[in-house]
């Protein structure tokens, strides 16, 4: 793998001819724009920053907002986010709007060096000049922080920035995205996206027009500033999104980002309203709570205008693909008795109703001791407050055990608000073998799939060592 990466990197360097490996310097400004700039424009910029989740990537753990230093783990090593406060020495205080726009569109810093695409400029390039200018005004209104990010730790030769010129030649399409006609709207889509009353009151033509406007806005946000594909699209060998598999799911920071094209294939198919609620609150009563890298995204989207989040949901719901005919995998079955119990009664009131095979006995014991008080059908959390059964959860029904194991290891931190969702971590409580037993039992107990094939202590150990969050 390393040899292949080195070879491809050399080819890229030759293809680029290093002619575009360093761009011209844009003259610095003597001082950042006044923080008393157009308050309305700064407010618009705050909207863009919330949609782009800028604060999460550009804020280190326990660091100052937007001061950078957060480690971003990639298959090629660690990249540290930069300081985007208006500090004149370590931030972007001496950047003009032209320099900021070039970074967003072309991935080029003010001094001419190329930025790594961990900064998602392949998406930001699709933003309008107006949105980029608004974001610039917002960033320049932040408090300046003097902070220098640690040096990146990348494998050779990918630590040689001029190679990015070749990457850009292959994968960067510069400039705002081209308009695409909205798909034909089904009546159900109109009711979901616009509301039954609004769709009926506006008539078919008006509803079509309103849906098209909302869809276009959603597409612009998803493909641009929100950069959803950066996480939810699989990457190729060189870390670029696979163009033939948009939104088909990806992996980052030790978590699987699920496919956004299969929301209608969930045990309870997602609706437009449920997706809006999830994106704005981090919780959908029919599906569960956000965790891992998605949790801070929902916290940022909570600060975005509701109409924008609604448009994002409209566009994402239009991407759904029909489910293929399911096939039976014998390795995913447990035993005839257990499979019957799971399919006919996926959440029995009394856990003793389920007689797990010997392979799941340890997991059942662990579940009863550590999980049943919250996740059994008679637990207060399950009977009050519209909490969904684990049977509805994406992690339990996923093909990969990664997210379920991540949840068990790290839990969900308490954020001190009434709307927070909390789960205690078990990384220091259970061994790798116990986590594997618990995960396999939970999947057999709450889904129709049976235990994950191959999930054992060694797999948990590998997941435990991966960096999930800095």
Describe the structure.
- There is one protein chain.
- This protein is mainly alpha-helical and 470 residues long.
- It has 3 domains: 21-171, Orthogonal Bundle (Cytochrome Bc1 Complex, Chain D, domain 2); 187-317, no CATH class; 339-465, Cytochrome c-like domain (Cytochrome Bc1 Complex, Chain D, domain 2).
- It is 43% helix and 4% strand.
- It is built from 21 helices and 7 strands.
- The strands form 3 sheets. Strands 1-2-3 form a 3-stranded antiparallel sheet, with no helix packed on it.
- It starts with a helix and ends in a 5-residue tail after the last helix.
Question: Can you give me a brief rundown of this structure?
Answer:
The protein is mainly α and 470 residues long.
Major sheet: arrangement of strands? 1-2-3
- Biggest beta sheet attributes: 3 strands, antiparallel
Per CATH, which architecture of the largest domain?
Answer: Orthogonal Bundle
Rg over CA atoms, rounded to whole Å, is: 24 Å
**Helical content band:** 40-55%
Overall tally of domains: 3
Whole-number mean pLDDT: 82
- CATH uppermost class of the largest domain: Mainly Alpha
Distance between the termini: 26 Å
Protein name: Nicotinate dehydrogenase subunit B
Keywords: Cell membrane, Heme, Iron, Membrane, Metal-binding, Oxidoreductase, Repeat, Signal
Subcellular location: Cell membrane
Binding site for heme c 1: 54, 57-58
